[in-house]
Every structure is written in structure tokens, then in C-alpha cells.
Specification:
The protein is mainly alpha-helical. The protein has helices at about 1-20, 20-55, 70-100, 100-115, 125-155, 160-190, 195-200, 205-215, 220-240.
């Protein structure tokens, strides 16, 4: 329970950090806005043509008597939209981080400098960092998709599927969101995906406390955009905790570093 509170605390500390650094906050909004426009366009297309797609995919229901064909296809359309929405939540962070890699790297470095006066660097060229980020995000997406299929199947269970399963889904989504966000700071420290997952599994409460509220908030698109810069800042602070790094004794946490 203590780690759950600590994880949520890092999320709040990150939001507070960017609110005190207006320039970093403004630059951090741009990637989220770009990604939001792309995702909104995809969801609008699904809303417009989703019924047609389901009708095309279920020709066996053409001969069903009314109202069963309409109810069945309406149910499938709702499920399809829910799955795409879940996929959008799961991938929004990864796509936004990929689009805004230089912005968020800079933001994460600023947080490190404020904490200890030193920002670790991977030493890799930008193209290599982008490749690693995209590759790791795809691996996380595959893991999340497996969980998504399992939860979708469990969703048909009476009562449990409408109560327990959605809650589990938010916790799983929160864990993967935390991995994506802490990757910005941990990748600069040359911590690979397997090590990152091991670190987070050893502190599941911390990951859930940080990522689960974020997963719920990310259901509202505009909220996701405005929370992203602070989420990156908070994830950097949490990454320091996971690795046992501490702030410089000569400077309090969050106090700007001099160079």
C-alpha cells in the first residue's frame, strides 16, 4: 500500500515540476497534440464506417430474423469500438513518446539536472535511440495485446466480466504505461527492456500507483495531452527511486541546478 501511494505521489510531483517550468511544459504538449489529432481521426473513421465493417465481416447473420441480426451486429460494433479505444489508450503513450523523443529526452534530462546536477546519457545517436524505443514499444504492445485478448474473453463472464475484469484491465494498462514512461529515463541509463520490466515487477505497487490513475485519466483525450509532460517528469523521478539514486545533498529535490 505504501508503494501505491508513493507511485501516485511521483505522478503528482511530475505535474508540479512541469507547472513550475513553463517552457518545458509548453514544448512537451506538442507531441501529444500531434498524436491526439491522428488518433481522433482514426476513431472518427471507425465511428462512421464501423457498422459497415461489422456487416461485411458477419455475412452469416444476413438471414437472421429481426431484431437479432441488428442486436448482434450492434453488440459487435460496440465491442470493436471498445477494443480500439483500449488499444488507443495502450499505444497513445508509446506513439507520443516516439513522436516527441527529442522533447521528452530533454525534459527528462532537465529533471535529472534539477535533482543531482548530472543527467546520464546513453551515448547513442538519435536514430539508434528512436529504433530502440520503437522496437521496445512494439514488444510492450504485443504483451499488452495478449492481455487484452484474455481480458476480452473474460469479459463475457456474468458479473465478473462487467466488474472485476475492467478493474484488472486498468491495472495492467497502468503497469505498461509506467514502463513506457520510465523508459525515457532508464534508456538513457542503458537499462534494457528486460531489466526495466524486472525493476517494475519488483515494485508493482509503485508502478500501479503511478500508471493506473494515468490510464483512467488517459480515457479523456485532452487530459492525456496535458498530463504527458508531467508524466514524463514524474516517471524520471520514479526511475531514480527504482535505481536507488538520490538527490544531491547540496540541493533539495526539484531545486534547479546551476551549470
Amino acid at each position: 500500500m505504501r508503494d501505491l501511494g508513493a507511485g501516485f505521489g511521483y505522478l503528482m510531483k511530475g505535474q508540479r515540476w512541469v507547472s513550475q517550468h513553463g517552457k518545458q511544459f509548453g514544448m512537451g504538449l506538442l507531441p501529444g497534440l500531434i498524436t491526439l489529432v491522428l488518433y481522433a481521426a482514426a476513431l472518427v473513421c471507425l465511428a462512421v464506417w464501423g457498422d459497415d465493417f461489422v456487416t461485411w465481416a458477419t455475412p452469416f447473420a444476413d438471414g437472421w430474423t429481426s431484431p437479432w441480426a441488428g442486436l448482434f451486429r450492434g453488440f459487435l460494433t460496440g465491442v470493436l469500438f471498445a477494443l480500439v479505444l483500449l488499444l488507443a489508450v495502450l499505444t497513445f503513450t508509446a506513439v507520443t513518446l516516439l513522436v516527441g523523443q527529442p522533447f521528452y529526452e530533454s525534459l527528462s534530462e532537465k529533471v535529472d539536472l534539477a535533482e543531482c546536477g548530472h543527467a546520464p546519457e546513453s551515448g547513442l545517436p538519435l536514430w539508434r535511440e528512436l529504433w530502440i524505443s520503437a522496437r521496445d514499444s512494439l514488444r510492450i504492445l504485443v504483451r499488452a495485446a495478449v492481455w487484452g485478448v484474455l481480458l476480452f474473453a473474460l469479459g463475457f463472464l456474468p458479473f465478473v466480466g462487467q466488474t472485476v475484469v475492467p478493474v484488472i484491465g486498468f491495472f495492467i494498462t497502468g503497469f505498461f504505461l509506467t514502463e513506457e514512461l520510465t523508459a525515457v529515463a532508464l534508456q538513457r541509463r542503458s537499462v534494457d527492456l528486460r531489466e526495466r520490466l524486472a525493476l517494475l515487477r519488483s515494485r508493482k505497487g509503485l508502478a500501479w500507483g503511478f500508471g493506473t490513475p494515468l490510464a483512467v485519466a488517459f480515457l479523456v483525450p485532452f487530459v492525456a495531452v496535458f498530463l504527458m509532460p508531467g508524466a514524463v517528469a514524474g516517471a524520471t523521478l520514479m526511475a531514480r527511486d527504482l535505481l536507488g539514486e538520490t538527490a544531491s545533498p547540496a540541493r533539495g529535490a526539484g531545486e534547479p541546478a546551476t551549470r
